[in-house]
Every structure is written in structure tokens, then in C-alpha cells.
Amino acid sequence: MKNILAAAAVFAAAGLPLGAAAQASGADMNAANNPLTPTIGANLQDQYVGRSYGLGDADSNAFLFRGTLPHKLFGMPQILRATMPVVTTADTPLPGGRYTGAGDLNLFDVFLFKAGGVELGIGPQLTLPTASRDQTGAGKWQGGLAAVAMAPQKWGLVGGLVTWQKSFAGDDRPGVDTAQLQPFFIYNLEQGWYVRSSATWNFNLKNGDYSIPVGAGAGKIWKMGGTTYNLFVEPQWTVAHQGDGQPKFQVFMGLNLQFPL
User: Fold this and answer.
1) What is the DSSP string of 15-64?
2) How far apart are CA 71 and CA 57, in angstroms?
3) CA gyration radius, the chain
4) Residue whose C-alpha is closest to residue 155's, from 189, 119, 118, 193
5) Does 221 have pLDDT greater than 70?
6) Spatial contact of 238 and 247, defined as CB atoms under 8 Å apart
7) C-beta atoms surrounding 22 within 10 Å
8) 126-147 tens-digit pLDDT
9) Which domains are assigned to the chain?
10) Helices (H), the chain
11) For 157, left (φ over 0), alpha (ψ -120 to 50), or beta?
């Protein structure tokens, strides 16, 4: 699947036709890139790590099946997001080579608010130990919080996603206490094209390890039959880190679909 997404990104970048597509407006483009847009979504995303600190040229990969579902609870609008990864670990002498398997299922449900021109979402987060191998998951139940703030502009989007989670049950394995920050910067261009930076910063709160990458990529948005398609690729370089196993260089790519309610 990763190769299919990479090939699709190359075709889009080359300007080849993608079918009978309708032109995406600026509002369509902001809605397609805004994680707080209350629409049914299905995302096929891939995070390929080409090199990591302490691991040489050993690569790894995480393919993400991600979906969003708007709903209401207690009369309040919310968005439920589910992410199921398929993980391929780095091929290293320890702990025993390369493994591929299902990872841990992550869920968060954010309540939606507005404050002036800023859209906000905040709610609980839960990670289930669904990994098919010890090497592709933490083996722990984890709970925490997720918060999103997005400020749509005429030229695009700026905002961020912050998550925190800590383990509270599971296998007799090291505990988890992590935080992530994903800044969003989207600048809209003509004919559905845009440039983007959305690399996720990772922080291990137990041992102090962290990685801070910066991304620079591009994407293309179009509409067909009421469905919005968003194809993108974003190379990312780590500018600060602590600890072995942190990525030096990675590529985030994907195809996001939004369906009419």
C-alpha cells in the first residue's frame, strides 16, 4: 500500500489527470485539511522512516488506517477519531530483526467549540493493546487527553494538535508516559494545490527522550461525486533530538477522503 500511495503522489505532482475532478475552492481546501471538520473521513496514511539515530540506515514504517466520525453526546458536537497502525520495525541485530504486524489501536473523542476565529476540540484519549507482536506495540492500556486548535485563514490554516497519554494496565513491560505536538501550517495555492508542514514532535516523559522534526511538503485537493480527495507527501527532517531510535529523516504521505453527511 505504501508503494501505491507513493506512486499516486508522483502522478499528482506530475500534473497527470486524476479523473473528472471538480475544482476545489479555498473553503473546500481548508475543510479538507482541518482535523475539526465535522465529516465522515477515511484516511490511508504512511510514515516511512529512512534513517534513525543510533540505528544507522535501518528503516522502519507505520501504515495508518485512520477514520473520523462526527456525532453528538449530551447535545454537544464531537468528532471520534480512530487510528489503527500496521508497523514494520527496523531490521537491527537486537532485539532480533525485522517484524511486521498490527500496532496498538488509538481512539480519541473531542468536543467541538469556537472562540472567535479559532476552532477548538478537547476530549479523552484511549490506546488499546491490540498489537499482534510484542515488537509492534507497547502492550499497555493507555489513557489521556487530546486537544486541537485550528484558525482558518483566507490563505490557509494554522493550528496544532496536542496529545498526552499514560499507561495504567497491561503486560509486565515498561510503562508509557508520552506527549505529542503536531503543528499545522497549510498555505493554499491555485487549482487545489497547497504546501504544508505538519511534522509531529514526540516526547517520552519517562526518560526525557524526544524528537522535533520539521516538514516541508505539498498536496492536491479535488472533488468527485460529492467526495473530497486530499493527496499529499511531506518529507520531514529532525532538527533536535535526545536518545537513540529517534528518526533522522522520514516521509509522511497519504490519501484522505471526506464523504458527504
Assistant:
1) T---SSPBPPPHHHHHHHH-TT--SEEEEEEEEEEEEETTTBT--EEEEE
2) 44
3) 18
4) 189
5) yes
6) yes
7) 13
8) 999 999 999 999 999 999 999 9
9) 2-259 (2.40.160.40)
10) 2-13, 26-33
11) beta
Looking up cell 475532478 gives 21
- Tell me the pLDDT tens digit for each residue of 194-204: 999 999 999 99
> Number of helices and strands (H, E) in the chain?
2, 15
Strand partners for 46: 63, 253
Instruction: Compute the distance between CA of residue 217 and CA of residue 234 in angstroms, rounded to an integer.
Output: 4
Question: What gap in Å lies between CA 88 and CA 63, rounded to an integer?
Answer: 9
DSSP 135: G
Q: Which of 17-26, 111-120, 236-245 has the lowest mean pLDDT?
A: 17-26
How far apart CA 10 and CA 233 sit, in angstroms, is 9
- Counting beta carbons within 10 angstroms of the beta carbon of residue 100, is it exposed (0 to 12), middle (13 to 18) or buried (19 or more)? middle
* Mean pLDDT in residue range 105-127: 96
> Contact, 171 vs 129, CB < 8 A?
yes
Residue range 48-56: average pLDDT? 89
Which residue has 513491560 as its cell numbers?
173
